[in-house]
Specification:
This protein has a 6-stranded mixed beta sheet, with helices on both faces. Strands 7-8 form a two-stranded antiparallel ribbon. About 0% of the residues have low confidence. It starts with a strand and ends with a helix. It is an alpha/beta fold and about 210 residues long. The chain is built from 10 helices and 8 strands. It folds into 2 domains: about 130 residues, Rossmann fold; about 70 residues, DNA polymerase, domain 1, CATH 1.10.150.
Amino acid sequence: MNGVTITVDVRERRSDVPPLLIEAGADVDLVTLAVGDYAVGDRVIERKTVPDLHKSLVDRRLWSQVAALRHDSRRAYLLVEGVDLDRGPVPARAIRGALFKVLDNGIRLLSTASPEDTALWLHVLARQEQRRIEHRAPVTTGRRPIVVSPVGLLSAIPGISIDVAKALLRTFGSIAEIAAASKSDLQSIPGIGPERAAALHNALAERTR
């Protein structure tokens, strides 16, 4: 994958998907994710098999996960794995109504047939992210570097979307002012929590040394 990593939550280590990703040539980074089961660039994916989708609706766990996805600054997806959506105790109308509610919360839906199909979707997503990163990477020609915009620089930091980068610049005015801001000030921007503020602070500290 030439340096592109698919981040996988440790709770997924027992599923068939991570080994299939490795077989496909992806770099898999197993960590504890605060939101979702998989992360690729600025996209986060919550994976649910059909039986787990039914179970999470019964115990209402799904809605806390949807809320976390909705408030994350990355593009969020709910991936439903399985060919029979009605394989569970939730009535057919209710399961479909719940998925419409997920869409109404701004979460994108993906439907896959099997772990193999899920791994294929994630692998394709990682390849697209790889091309996107390569396309926006700073390029130098001789001694005259191509200038990277402030939004481009900020959005290159993991976890910082273009919208969050623009909000930072609107609030603080410049990269230098953002670098000088405290972590608590950075958290005043929607989509930036303690972990993201620390990552942003550290990244900008490296760039401004």
